[in-house]
Amino acid sequence: MFDKILIANRGEIACRVIRTARRMGIRTVAVYSEADARAMHVEMADEAVCIGPAPVGESYLRGDVILNVAKQTGAQAIHPGYGFLSENAGFAAACAEAGVVFIGPPIEAIRVMGSKAESKRVMAQADVPLVPGYHGEAQDLETLAAEAQRIGFPVLVKASAGGGGKGMRVVRAPAEFADAVAGAKREAKAAFGDDSVLLEKYLGRPRHVEIQVFCDTHGNGVYLFERDCSIQRRHQKVIEEAPAPSLPDDLRRRMGEAAVAAAKAVNYVGAGTVEFLYEDGGFYFIEMNTRLQVEHPVTEKITGQDLVEWQLRVAAGGTLPLKQDQLTRRGHAFEARLYAEDPQREFLPAIGRLVRLRPPAENEHVRVDTGVREGDEVTMFYDPMIAKLIVWDEDRDAALRRLRVALGAYEVVGVTTNVGFLGAIAAHPAFRGVEIDTGFIERYRADLLPPPAPVPDRGLVLAALAVLLRRNAETKKARRAASDPHSPWLSASGWRLNDDNHHDLRLIDGETPRPLTLHFRPTGYEVEVEGRPAIRAENVAWDGETLTATIDRVRTRATVVFQGLDLTILSDGSVWRLHLDDPTARAADQEGGSGRLTAPMPGTVVRVLVEPGQAVEAGAPLMLLEAMKMEHTIKAPAAGTVTAVNFAAGDQVSEGVDLLVLDVGEEK
């Protein structure tokens, strides 16, 4: 067994590998970019070495630099995690040449399985079921069109060299075929440097079922059952589960045996995943991922095995810990991927500081794999995953209940997240009823992503109480420092001289003002929301973070987080965001005539269309911003004069930064 390994990755997978290595008595070396100097994986590892600036091309994709670090630190092996260099045959070859063990499959297996077309040719020879299609080398339009007619429409055009949904088109009629192929080739060339495509019969409502396989250098190969990863958006997995529900046991066995045959066809070694589409009793090979998968924890939960430990033992030359007939599964597990992203804005990534990050308590039923802590920054440079939430119980219904409860208990403030979206999936009747396929999210999009609703009265009352009690705490602090600490004029307890004891507040919900009046009563408060009959709030307590109150006889608990005049209220799985309308701040803001135009998302400035001193009309384009491979135009909200341009073409910007300043007081 190795004494020391290097983890060529970051985030939650780096932390995940470190935990197993530490348990096995193996020392670890972390590598990190300048942006990750204080990252969680850096602090967890025994040693850590900086490998370059923040962009991945200058750090985590620099295989030569990473190999030099391995030599300098005496690491005997490199664990690539997933992503980055994990499926890079060139890096695996460089490791072999340098005498460092690559904790992954043989170079040729990576190469073959990295090509969708070649992998399908090899699978056909191994009698692994394939979706009817064309995987040939001829790429002229005439050949492709003839093959599409043979397969029968609708067909799927796919980039041969890539993944993640890039270079993929569904073609439903012959007249659409030429344009679809041209578009897929352009996108494939831009993303992967290879414009070759393959064709497949398009399945209407397939499920995505994958098999976890493991092989060693002694000729042994097993499958550790299956996972269902059908809940996807833009071909990216959102919630995974194991085992796949509602599959006959005979079908599970046949899929597992086909997956092992696929692995042995390329002399595979280590952990891999063979992915299939399943529909109407038939299953068809899609591709093989030659690495550990993001969703491997659900397999670990139902088998009781540590797959990273298996990887380390096999890479060190050992045999598989268990044979096929020794592997068993128990119960059901789900994994939900928590991302800093905005589901209401086409899942655009969000960046910012994790002001509050409190996961549910971990136990035998709940596991949280993460690479960030409260106070850390989610940056524009890397995948915005916050954590993977994994739950387990004896059956699917029980595990799904635990998933809903755990998602409701997850508290994240500071960045927009998909937690509510995940909760909507977990609570959807069709998901509970196993009416699932790869089109689930689009089919139920209206249910899963309803328009933002106004904050309910309960949320407004909780916010108002928190504002008042926070003021009271600050006032008490001021009284202690005052020359007359007993003065009633410094009290926010409700004392008034010849006046009704009340407070008037105005909260902004989106762009809508929501006025409230709080009346002090001997047992608590009566709160009028927008002039409606008062809501009683009694037994109110506030500790600076958590607010408890009995609201109209219902005991309620909420976490309230203040960020300046912004409030986030988290209660029973609901998240409400409000802004405290401060007349003083509003008056100060209205004194000037300048308008700061901020970045609506993290991205790159493509082009600046104006310069300081230039007069512009309302609606005039000022700057082009690229994010998620789409261009967004920053326009003037009113006529005025540009007084400052804060960024140039090529600059990367964070969400919310001031891009330009426009003087709208008077057009020059």
Automatic annotation (TrEMBL):
Keywords: ATP-binding, Biotin, Ligase, Nucleotide-binding. Residues 120-316 form the ATP-grasp domain. GO terms for molecular function: methylcrotonoyl-CoA carboxylase activity. Residues 588-663 form the Lipoyl-binding domain. This is 3-methylcrotonyl-CoA carboxylase alpha subunit. It comes from Azospirillum rugosum. NCBIfam families: PRK08591.1 (NF006367). Its EC number is 6.4.1.4. Its cofactor is biotin. The lineage of its organism: Bacteria, Pseudomonadati, Pseudomonadota, Alphaproteobacteria, Rhodospirillales. InterPro entries: ATP-grasp, BC-like_N, Biotin_carboxylase_complex, Biotin_carboxylation_dom, Biotin_COase_C, Biotin_lipoyl, CPAse_ATP-bd, MCC_alpha_BT.
